Amino acid sequence: MKKILAIILLAALAVSFSACGSIKIPRQQDTGDNGAASAVKNGDDSQNIASDANGEKVMDTGDFEITLPDGYHIANEYIPEDSSANLLITDKQENIGISFIKEKISDFEGTVVTDLDSYLKVQHENVQADSIGEMTEENGLKYFEYQSVNDGTSFKYFTTAASDGENYWTIQCFCVADEYDQLKPDFIRWISSIKFH
Fold first, then answer.
1. What is the pLDDT of residue 55?
2. What is the per-residue pLDDT for 150?
3. By the 8 A CB rule, do 145 and 87 touch?
4. How many angstroms separate the CA atoms of 119 and 108, rounded?
5. For residue 113, which of 108, 126, 136, 158 is within the disulfide window of CB 3.0 to 4.6 Å?
6. Domain ranges in the chain?
7. pLDDT along the chain (197 residues), means of 10
């Protein structure tokens, strides 16, 4: 499975991650504890995770929080050394992945990247894949999808971006293509749950 996950991640990073973006995910204010949260540690990663009443977990990555189903964990050991990715989160079975790339906004001064939309547009224009979808917007979230075959298996990718005010973040959710349509609403929900620190 490690080899497959590494191949999937490499394909996910086929997007030229020197500029990608979509909609700025706003910082959400804390609405207080609903009484259902409990802090837990997850494995050797010592990740900061709180459980909610729905069986989902709020994972604190250090840069942001994201709400995911129970069992998702940081799997940075699968990120190739030559990768631009800063963070990889996978499910227990390592069939679904979410990769994150953090790039300083100031690094784009003097380029065609002037805002989050142009960041995502450049990513879309530079992706190299078997099938690339158009830029789309759904519920205020701008994204594009693409499909690529790796080791005889077809994978599908949901790519968007966000900004924390100082950095652009490329966010990619990916899975086996046959499971994509079922998982896409979850990808959108998970990305929409991100709260930057």
1. 79
2. 86
3. no
4. 9
5. 108
6. 2-27+52-196
7. 49 42 31 29 40 76 96 94 93 93 96 96 92 92 95 94 97 97 96 96
For 142, the 3-state DSSP assignment is strand
Place of tokens 């990916």: 174
Q: How far apart are CA 22 and CA 162, in angstroms?
A: 6
Strands (E), the chain: 39-42, 47-51, 56-60, 64-69, 73-74, 87-90, 97-104, 131-132, 136-138, 141-150, 153-163, 167-176, 195-196
| Amino acid 52: pLDDT | 53
Domain 2-27+52-196 has CATH 3.40.1000.10: yes
101 phi, psi to nearest 5 deg = -125, 130
